[in-house]
Each structure stands twice: as C-alpha cells, then as structure tokens.
Amino acid sequence: MRVVMFGYQTWGHRTLQSLLESDHEVVLVVTHPKSEHAYEKIWDDSVAELAEKHGVPVLLRNRPDDPELLDALRESRPDIIVANNWRTWLPPELFDLPPHGTLNIHDSLLPTYAGFSPIIWALINGEERVGVTAHRMNDGLDAGDILVQRSVVVGPTDTATDLFHRTVDLIGPIVRESLDLIASGKDAGQWMPQDRTRASFFHKRSAEDSRINWSWPAERLERLVRAQSDPYPNAYTFHRGERLRIVSAAVSDAYYGGTPGRIFIREGDGVVIVAGSEAHNGRCRGLVIKRLRTDDGTEHAAVDYFKTMGGYLTARP
What we know:
Layout: E1 2-7, H1 9-20, E2 25-31, H2 47-53, E3 58-60, H3 67-76, E4 80-84, H4 92-95, E5 102-106, E6 114-115, H5 118-124, E7 129-136, E8 146-153, H6 160-184, E9 201-202, H7 218-227, E10 236-239, E11 242-255, E12 263-267, E13 270-273, E14 285-294, E15 299-301, H8 302-305
Parallel strand pairs: 1-2, 1-4, 2-3, 4-5, 6-9
Antiparallel strand pairs: 5-7, 7-8, 10-11, 11-14, 12-13, 13-14, 14-15
Helix pairs in contact: 1-6, 5-7
C-alpha cells in the first residue's frame, strides 16, 4: 500500500521506521516543526530527518488545514494514512481521503486515556496496565474503531520512563500487523467499536500538573514522583521559598499524623513528609523523600538536605 505518515517525536519516528522497514511504500511524511514545549523536547527523535534520509518528501506543519497540504496529499494518492503523535485535530476531508482512511496509533488502552500524556496520567492513577492502540480515526478524539491493541504490566517501582520504553517498543509490531491485516483484507470483522461509556480524556501536562499537593495520599504522591521521572519535569514542592524537585520517594512504613506538608522524621534512608487530607487522624502513611534536586541542578540525599526536622513543604513559595 501507498502510505502517508503524520507524526512527531520518538513515537512518530518509531512509526515511520516500521513503515520504512515494511513491504509498504511511504510516499509523504507530515510532521511538526521543533517545539520549545517542555514535554515536546523529550523523546524528540526527528521524523523529518529520518524521512529525508530515506528520500521521502516532508512537509512541516503546526496545523493540517491549509490547501497546499491537502493538494500534496491528493497528489500522493495514498491507500492509507498512518498517524502517531500528531498534536492537532485532523479534518475529515483529510483523514477520510484515502480508501482505507487513517490508522491512528495511540499510546493508551483506549477508550481510556484518550488525549495527551496517557502513560503519565495512568501511572499517577495506579493503573495495572498501559499499552498502545491502533484504531481508525473518526471525528472524535481517539474515538474510532480499534483494530489492534497490546499492553504491558505496570510494576510497583516502574517510572514513566520505564513504561515509555516498553510501550514505544510495541509501536513497530502493531503498525506492521495492522497494515498487513488491512492490505490482505483480513481486517474485515476485526474492527471493534469503542465503548464510549468508558472513555476518558486528558489534557497536555504543564508545570502546574507537577506541583505536589500534600493533601493527596502518600500512595498517589509516590506514583506522581515516578510518573515525573527524569527526563520528564520532576514533581516539585517548595521549602523556605526554594523549589525542590523530588527525584525519588517511597510510601512510609509507619503512620504519621498532623498537618500535610510537615517535615516530620527520618525513616530509613529518607525523610517523612506528612501527607493526606485525613492526616490529622494519624492513620495515613507519609511520603518518604529519598532524593531531591534544587533549582541549580544539584541533587541531594534528603537526609543530608534536611538538617533538622520541622517546618513545612508548601505548594508555593
């Protein structure tokens, strides 16, 4: 089949690589210009450079709604469009143009976690599995019928970085399997409509989403720290007006009572911070901060940074 690829960052790069290694012909690539957004500077393997290396025409666009792009797409005569990590809405006159429409590759187990940063949100929420879904694009957000879906288990110490590497490795096999099914006609009857009553949608993450709220239970805060693992912007809090980025943490063994955010006591190789909206009752675990990073980039063991106990960590300076 003749394929046009829409994609960006490492997700798009892996998709294009799998297409180039397949029996299908990539006739045009559409990708975004480089971005200064914090999350778009991570996992930023260049789709444009890979396409140019293989002699595939490239168009750079922030949005896909200009006549030149539509003309280029028509001239390319694709049998199918494959999209992965395209960051804006595609209009119907574009995604429905090829005979087989547009196959979108999304890094969640749809219908849940449609939208942005699904792995990070899923980890924060304590999901047991994450994965990748190949579905046919329609006019809803990540809402089309599913063809192939694969998942991996979320381990108790997994970070978002760990899960990124495990899910991005699913992209190539899923793309190849999906296109081979479609090309052979064996996809007939295999498209599964999404249960829209289970759908959930998530926005792009920003600095505000990494701010620690000490009224959250320690279990969720520990997952937030793992979800904001390097190279993602770390979860952060403030101590005496200075921002502290939390590099590693754990849930305390003991229960601690008091006011959320209180720097309480050493436990093991870390320092316990009181956490949870019900912390006053003394039946909540605390968050044990083990390592932290100051704004100058210096990393510290928490037991070295907090010389004395007492005082509070706060959401703002």
